[in-house]
Amino acid sequence: MFTKLLVANRGEIALRIIRACQELGVRSVAVYSDADAQAPHVREADEAVRIGPAPSSESYLKGDVIIEVAKRVGAQAIHPGYGFLSEREWFARAVREAGLVWVGPPAEAIAAMGSKTAARTLAISAGVPVVPGTAQGLTDAAEARTVAAKYGYPVLLKAAAGGGGKGMRIVRADGEMAAALDSARSEARKSFGDDAVYVEKYIEGPRHVEIQVLADSHGNCISLGERECSVQRRHQKMIEEAPSVAVTPELRKRMGDVAVAAAKAAGYVNAGTCEFLLDRDGNFYFLEMNTRIQVEHPVTELVTGLDLVQWQIRIASGEKLPFTEPLVPRGWAIECRITSEDPANGFLPSTGRIEHLHLPSGPGVRWDGGIEAGSEVGLFYDPMLAKLIVHAATREQAIARMHRALLELTIDGIETSREFHLRVMEHPDWQSGNISIQWLEQHLDAIATPQPPDDAVLAAAVAAALIAERDRSARGGVSTTAASSAAPSSSPAAATGGDAWRRAGLLDGLR
Ligand code: MV4
Questions:
Q1: Topology of domain 4-103, per CATH?
Q2: Assessment of whether the complete model's pTM goes beyond 0.70
Q3: Is any atom of ligand 1 closer than 6 Å to the C-beta of 437?
Q4: 32: part of which helix (H) or strand (E)?
């Protein structure tokens, strides 16, 4: 095992990796930008080195600088976390060429899965089901129409270099093809510097289900089961869970076998994830492989009992996996991403100082965060501040537990996604598991827009306010009662613009 590891990341994932190091007895080295000089990951690591100014292009993306730091401080390995340099083939290669250990898959496996068309071709050769379509870039709209005639409309144009939905266009008829191909091409060129576009049959209303795999350097590769990630908005996942209501033990086995086959075909080592679309008839199609630890890894950890980040480090140090059979999930885990975004205002990023932070705890609750009271939240980095994860025996209990934990959570000073998550937990479609990748965007009005409280809630809030007012006059002091929390999961002022409350004329001075 290594004695010292450099963590090439920030925020919650840097802390997560530092914690894994501590438990393994490995010294951790943090790197930080000027914006993060006071960040928790800098304090919690055994050592910390400044690498540049706030913009990530001048700090967390400076691979050459990070490798120099690792060599200077005597680290033997680099863990990239997710985002930043984690899926840059050149960086994985440069780390190896510097004589350091890369805690991730071989550069060749990152490359094999980096191009969507190359990954598709690889998957097909390994017998992995993919969405019917072409494996090569299209030459022109006429060719695209011929392919569409073969599979039937609607079809989906996709950028070969793609990812994150960039350069994707749904085409529903021949007449739309030429314009859609032009715009997909120009978006692909702008986003990836590569305008190759291919075509697939469009799958309507599927779920996004992914399979976590773990492969060691001795040829063992196992599936750790699925995560359901359908609750997303504009390709940003908001909630993930394990297992998925749509996956039976039989389907889990088939998807797991396929994911392992894809990983083996790519020469994969370390933790990785195969993404699938799962349609309403139970057909699944490989989309791509994520060659990194993912944000949502904790739900898999909770249902398998494994520490995935520790296993990443142990695999990188040459250890053998002690199991060869796929693991069976135990209980149910749910993760909510706590972001500095204001769902009531189109998920506008919110900035400021975290004035007060109260974290949920109690049975089955885990907080993977990168913030503390006093943290400044700016616009330089991803708005994801933390993840709230719960584990319980059943899905129903996990939802109740998440709802309870979200109620316990207080973050003052900035807007966050907390109330959005409360509303999802309260939603009948979510509770019944009746969701797809389109569900959230179709229900955003009900979930993310402040709803005027109904009469019963308003009456309860007014009653609470009257009691607070009475108590306050009785004490001759300032009220600290919870009048503002009487309306569940919504602040009265935000809910109504203050109007109903002001009309009621009863809450003046309480907030
Ligand atoms: C699809 C699809 C439907 N049919 N492919 C979006 C990003 C990229 N990784 C693949 N994506 C999709 N590919 C076919 N043939 C729908 C999506 C898609 C999606 C996939 C996973 C998670 C969220 C999504 C949101 C919108 C569209």
A1: Rossmann fold (3.40.50)
A2: yes
A3: yes
A4: strand 27-33
